[in-house]
Amino acid sequence: MHSTTYARIVRASGLYDLFITAPFATPWTFALLHGHLSAVNEAMGGAPLPAFGPLHVLFACLMGSVVLLWSVLRILDPQVRFGRYDGAGRFAFTLWMAWTLAQTGMPILWLLIVPEFAWGVVQWLPLRRDRNDAAAPAGAMLGV
Description:
- This protein is mainly α.
- The protein has one domain (3-142).
- Helix content is 71%, strand content 0%.
- It has helices at 3-21, 27-43, 54-76, 80-104, 110-122, 138-142.
- Helix 1 (3-21) packs antiparallel against helix 3 (54-76) and helix 1 (3-21) crosses helix 4.
- The radius of gyration is 17 Å and the shape is elongated.
- Keywords: Membrane, Transmembrane, Transmembrane helix.
- The chain crosses the membrane at residues 12-31, 51-73.
């Protein structure tokens, strides 16, 4: 894959994250989202999501805020290095979501696991050297 295509992928993953995680950024938007997620989980054959107390909401909002800022960075500056780090993070997120799925059986997690893993894979695909990148050291293509 060429670096220009890769930059578009990094930017698209940032836009995806912006859309998915924005509702996690404040206690008020998270309260609305929690109800919708619970309804979707029930529609998929699962149980309602457990109620969240203030401490749970705090951690959801902290995660939402950090991912929101990380999303904006990748949208505005879609570097290879950022895509590689994001891909690694997505594999970690996928692992924790799969662990939670194994513990709870909540079907809604599949709606997060599949795209999370896919974004991780696509951001770890090898890059082709562009003609003007011929003098770049090998590590530069990895973005490290």
